[in-house]
Amino acid sequence: MARSIFDRYGGFASVGKIVLDFYDRVLDDDILGPFFEDVDMRRLIDHQTKFMASVMGGPASYTDETLQHVHAHLGIDHVAFEQMIRVLRETLGDFRMAPADVDAVTRAMRSREAVIVAEPAG
Fold first, then answer.
1. Angle, alpha carbons 60-36-47 (nearest 5°)
2. 10 DSSP assignment
3. pLDDT (tens digit per residue) in 30-73
4. What is this structure's pTM?
5. What pLDDT sits at residue 120?
6. Nearest one of 15, 52, 22 to 36, comparing CA atoms
7. What is the pLDDT of residues 7-18, one digit of tens each?
8. Which residues contact 75 (CB under 8 A, 6 or more apart)?
9. What is the C-alpha separation between 47 and 40, in angstroms, rounded?
10. 26 neighbors 79 (Cβ within 8 angstroms)
11. Which fold has domain 7-116?
């Protein structure tokens, strides 16, 4: 049986480090940082570690409805989403994740774009 990306890269301990590094970069980013000004980062990082684990084939899961609910009020546009993908790819690469695995993780994230990005009304 093939091991998941989550298992190959060390499970929750490694995913937690990746998520922490990712959010350090996000908070310093001119496009993404403002989305997190009034956010409880400890709580967010806990949730994001579980979410990233699920994206990597780990033992957690998030429904599209949940993702849509938590992002609906943020007004995330396509530019911000693409920037998040760029920062995520850079972070995963810096953690020496194989290019095919980086592609798999970003594909999984892109598959959720429609429930994360707020489409303009009308």
1. 15
2. T
3. 999 999 988 899 999 999 999 999 999 998 777 878 888 888 88
4. 0.90
5. 53
6. 22
7. 999 999 999 999
8. 118
9. 11
10. no
11. Globin-like (1.10.490)
Distance CA 25, CA 3 (A): 29
d(CA 92, CA 116): 20
Average pLDDT of the residues of the chain: 91
Tell me the torsion sign for CA atoms 78, 103, 96, 43.
positive
Report the alpha-carbon distance of residue 47 to residue 53 in Å, rounded. 10
> What are the distances in angstroms from CA 36 to CA 27, 94, 106?
7, 23, 21
- Rounded-to-integer distance, Cα 28 and Cα 16, Å: 19
Domain boundaries, the chain: 7-116
CA-based end-to-end distance of the chain? 48
Residue 113 CB burial class (10 angstroms; 0-12, 13-18, ≥19): middle
